[in-house]
Write a structure and sequence with these properties.
This protein is of the alpha/beta class and 138 residues long. Helix content is 39%, strand content 22%.
Protein backbone atom coordinates (compact mmCIF):
# COMPACT_ATOMS: atom_id res chain seq x y z
CA UNK A 1 0.00 0.00 0.00
CA UNK A 2 1.17 3.50 -0.78
CA UNK A 3 2.50 5.50 2.19
CA UNK A 4 1.88 9.10 3.16
CA UNK A 5 5.53 9.80 2.32
CA UNK A 6 4.87 8.81 -1.30
CA UNK A 7 1.63 10.80 -1.56
CA UNK A 8 2.35 13.98 0.39
CA UNK A 9 3.40 17.37 -0.86
CA UNK A 10 6.85 17.63 0.67
CA UNK A 11 7.72 20.66 2.76
CA UNK A 12 5.13 23.06 4.00
CA UNK A 13 4.88 26.73 4.70
CA UNK A 14 3.51 27.32 8.18
CA UNK A 15 1.83 30.07 10.10
CA UNK A 16 3.13 30.86 13.56
CA UNK A 17 0.72 30.35 16.45
CA UNK A 18 1.28 33.98 17.46
CA UNK A 19 0.67 35.38 13.98
CA UNK A 20 -2.60 37.13 13.24
CA UNK A 21 -5.32 35.52 11.19
CA UNK A 22 -4.93 38.40 8.70
CA UNK A 23 -1.29 37.47 8.08
CA UNK A 24 -2.25 33.80 7.81
CA UNK A 25 -4.98 34.59 5.26
CA UNK A 26 -2.56 36.70 3.21
CA UNK A 27 -0.01 33.87 3.24
CA UNK A 28 -2.71 31.41 2.11
CA UNK A 29 -3.68 33.74 -0.73
CA UNK A 30 -0.06 34.30 -1.77
CA UNK A 31 0.63 30.56 -1.79
CA UNK A 32 -2.70 29.62 -3.38
CA UNK A 33 -3.55 27.17 -0.58
CA UNK A 34 -6.63 26.70 1.59
CA UNK A 35 -4.83 25.48 4.71
CA UNK A 36 -1.56 26.00 6.56
CA UNK A 37 0.01 24.10 9.45
CA UNK A 38 0.20 26.10 12.69
CA UNK A 39 3.67 26.03 14.26
CA UNK A 40 3.95 26.78 17.97
CA UNK A 41 6.72 28.64 19.77
CA UNK A 42 8.34 25.29 20.57
CA UNK A 43 8.59 24.68 16.80
CA UNK A 44 6.07 21.83 16.98
CA UNK A 45 2.98 21.62 14.81
CA UNK A 46 -0.20 22.46 16.73
CA UNK A 47 -2.73 21.86 13.98
CA UNK A 48 -3.99 23.15 10.67
CA UNK A 49 -5.58 26.51 9.98
CA UNK A 50 -8.09 26.49 7.13
CA UNK A 51 -9.95 29.20 5.31
CA UNK A 52 -13.12 27.66 6.80
CA UNK A 53 -11.72 28.16 10.32
CA UNK A 54 -11.21 31.83 9.50
CA UNK A 55 -14.69 32.31 8.09
CA UNK A 56 -16.62 30.31 10.72
CA UNK A 57 -14.59 30.97 13.86
CA UNK A 58 -13.43 34.54 13.23
CA UNK A 59 -15.51 36.43 10.67
CA UNK A 60 -18.90 34.87 11.44
CA UNK A 61 -18.34 35.47 15.15
CA UNK A 62 -17.30 39.06 14.48
CA UNK A 63 -13.84 38.53 15.99
CA UNK A 64 -11.11 40.88 14.83
CA UNK A 65 -8.87 38.98 12.39
CA UNK A 66 -6.05 41.47 13.01
CA UNK A 67 -5.89 40.58 16.70
CA UNK A 68 -7.01 36.94 16.62
CA UNK A 69 -3.97 34.66 16.64
CA UNK A 70 -3.74 31.57 14.46
CA UNK A 71 -2.96 29.46 17.52
CA UNK A 72 -6.32 30.38 19.03
CA UNK A 73 -7.95 28.39 16.23
CA UNK A 74 -5.87 25.23 16.53
CA UNK A 75 -7.46 22.01 17.64
CA UNK A 76 -7.06 20.85 21.23
CA UNK A 77 -5.33 17.70 20.01
CA UNK A 78 -3.15 17.58 16.92
CA UNK A 79 -4.61 15.51 14.11
CA UNK A 80 -1.78 14.36 11.86
CA UNK A 81 -0.40 11.29 10.14
CA UNK A 82 3.01 9.68 10.15
CA UNK A 83 5.11 9.46 6.97
CA UNK A 84 4.84 5.67 7.06
CA UNK A 85 1.04 5.52 7.44
CA UNK A 86 -0.66 3.95 4.45
CA UNK A 87 -3.37 5.58 2.34
CA UNK A 88 -6.11 3.55 4.08
CA UNK A 89 -5.03 4.87 7.49
CA UNK A 90 -4.84 8.44 6.17
CA UNK A 91 -8.37 8.02 4.80
CA UNK A 92 -9.65 6.81 8.18
CA UNK A 93 -8.05 9.76 10.00
CA UNK A 94 -9.51 12.25 7.51
CA UNK A 95 -12.98 10.70 7.70
CA UNK A 96 -12.97 10.38 11.50
CA UNK A 97 -11.99 14.02 11.92
CA UNK A 98 -13.85 15.55 8.97
CA UNK A 99 -10.72 17.15 7.52
CA UNK A 100 -9.48 17.56 3.97
CA UNK A 101 -5.76 18.11 4.61
CA UNK A 102 -3.38 16.81 7.26
CA UNK A 103 0.16 17.53 8.35
CA UNK A 104 2.56 14.64 7.75
CA UNK A 105 5.08 14.12 10.53
CA UNK A 106 8.29 12.16 10.84
CA UNK A 107 8.38 11.84 14.62
CA UNK A 108 7.58 15.42 15.66
CA UNK A 109 9.04 17.04 12.53
CA UNK A 110 6.71 18.38 9.83
CA UNK A 111 7.79 16.93 6.49
CA UNK A 112 4.76 17.79 4.35
CA UNK A 113 1.01 17.84 4.03
CA UNK A 114 -1.42 15.42 2.44
CA UNK A 115 -4.83 16.21 1.01
CA UNK A 116 -7.83 14.25 -0.13
CA UNK A 117 -6.81 14.47 -3.79
CA UNK A 118 -3.46 12.81 -3.11
CA UNK A 119 -5.16 10.05 -1.13
CA UNK A 120 -7.92 9.60 -3.72
CA UNK A 121 -5.39 9.01 -6.49
CA UNK A 122 -3.86 6.12 -4.52
CA UNK A 123 -7.08 4.28 -3.65
CA UNK A 124 -9.14 1.79 -5.67
CA UNK A 125 -12.42 3.16 -7.03
CA UNK A 126 -14.81 2.04 -4.21
CA UNK A 127 -12.64 3.71 -1.60
CA UNK A 128 -12.47 6.96 -3.57
CA UNK A 129 -16.25 7.21 -3.24
CA UNK A 130 -16.03 6.48 0.48
CA UNK A 131 -13.40 9.18 0.87
CA UNK A 132 -15.41 11.80 -0.96
CA UNK A 133 -18.58 10.89 0.98
CA UNK A 134 -16.79 11.15 4.30
CA UNK A 135 -15.15 14.45 3.49
CA UNK A 136 -18.22 16.11 2.01
CA UNK A 137 -20.10 15.88 5.32
CA UNK A 138 -20.02 19.25 7.07
Amino acid sequence: MTSARELMTAGADCVGADESVVLAAKRMADLGVSALPIRGGDNRIQGMLTYRDIVVNVLARERDPATTKAGELSQEELVAVDVDDDAHHVLRIMAANGVHRLPVLDGTELVGTIGRAEVARALPDPQVGELLDALSRD
